[in-house]
């Protein structure tokens, strides 16, 4: 189905009734939906309702299919991560329950979702599956405690930053290519954090943060 079909569906009274009931926090059971009709109805309903939306699919494959459908309907595919309306919430691991094989790109996706939840961004759709939902996460307080913010013009020792990144288990490399890595060349530090899909470049003038860009 196309986004045009989704738009026409928004105007149907039945879809409006579904959205109204969801806004009243009612429990609904819908049947008779097959294939992409599920994602089309989801897109249409979200357009008429408020709040944060969580879709839990049967497994990772079904969640990925549903997520791709919504990405196409919402023209989200080419947007930067922080501008996307629909987000995918995977497990942290390449294989279930094997923490030693964590995937940093999956962690980046999870961090973006948790960040949206913590600030209550409306009309965000999160698509996930049971294994990912059951994985433990930091509380909002712990997430804030384990975050470090830096601003241009602040006094920050390069040695302190290096030690801090090591404490957070960031890997020092020659060139950063994925989340969880950092590189230092003279007074320039490249950090690929778990809160942005592009690495940050931090330039120091002595112990002063001269510039930050991504």
Describe this structure in words.
The protein is α/β, with parallel strands linked by helices. The chain folds into two domains: 3-143, Rossmann fold, CATH 3.40.50; 148-213, Penicillin-binding protein 1b domain (Penicillin-binding protein 1b fold, 2-Layer Sandwich), CATH 3.30.2060.10. 38% of the residues lie in helices and 16% in strands. It has eight helices and eight strands, in the order H-H-H-E-H-E-H-E-H-H-H-E-E-E-E-E. The strands form two sheets. Strands 4-5-6-7-8 form a five-stranded mixed beta sheet, covered by helices on one side. The chain has a three-stranded parallel beta sheet with strand order 1-3-2, sandwiched between helices. Strand 2 (86-88), helix 5 (104-119) and strand 3 (125-128) form a beta-alpha-beta unit. Helix 3 (37-48) crosses helix 4. It starts with a helix and ends with a strand. The mean pLDDT is 84.
Topology:
Elements lengths: L2 H8 L2 H11 L13 H12 L4 E4 L3 H14 L12 E3 L15 H16 L5 E4 L1 H5 L5 H6 L12 H10 L3 E2 L8 E5 L2 E5 L7 E6 L2 E6 L1
Parallel strand pairs: 1-3, 2-3, 4-5
Antiparallel strand pairs: 5-6, 6-7, 7-8
Helix pairs in contact: 1-3, 2-3, 3-4
């Amino acid at each position: 189905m196309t986004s045009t079909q989704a738009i026409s569906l928004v105007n149907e009274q039945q879809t409006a009734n579904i959205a109204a009931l969801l806004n009243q926090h009612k429990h609904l059971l819908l049947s008779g939906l097959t294939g992409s009709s599920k994602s089309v109805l989801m897109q249409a309903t979200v357009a008429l309702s408020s709040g944060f939306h969580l879709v839990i699919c049967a497994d990772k494959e079904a969640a990925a299919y549903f997520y791709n459908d919504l990405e196409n309907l919402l023209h989200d595919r080419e947007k930067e991560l922080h501008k996307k309306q629909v987000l995918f919430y995977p497990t942290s691991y390449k294989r279930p329950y094997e923490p030693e094989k964590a995937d940093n790109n999956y962690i980046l996706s999870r961090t973006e979702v948790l960040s949206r939840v913590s600030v209550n961004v409306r009309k965000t759709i999160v698509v996930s599956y049971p294994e990912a939902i059951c994985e433990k996460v930091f509380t909002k307080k712990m997430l804030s405690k384990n975050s470090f913010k830096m601003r241009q013009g602040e006094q920050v020792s390069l040695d302190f930053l290096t030690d801090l990144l090591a404490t957070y288990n960031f890997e020092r490399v020659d060139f950063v290519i994925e989340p969880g890595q950092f590189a230092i060349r003279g007074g320039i530090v490249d950090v690929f954090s778990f809160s942005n899909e592009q690495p940050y470049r931090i330039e120091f003038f002595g112990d002063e943060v001269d510039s930050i860009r991504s």
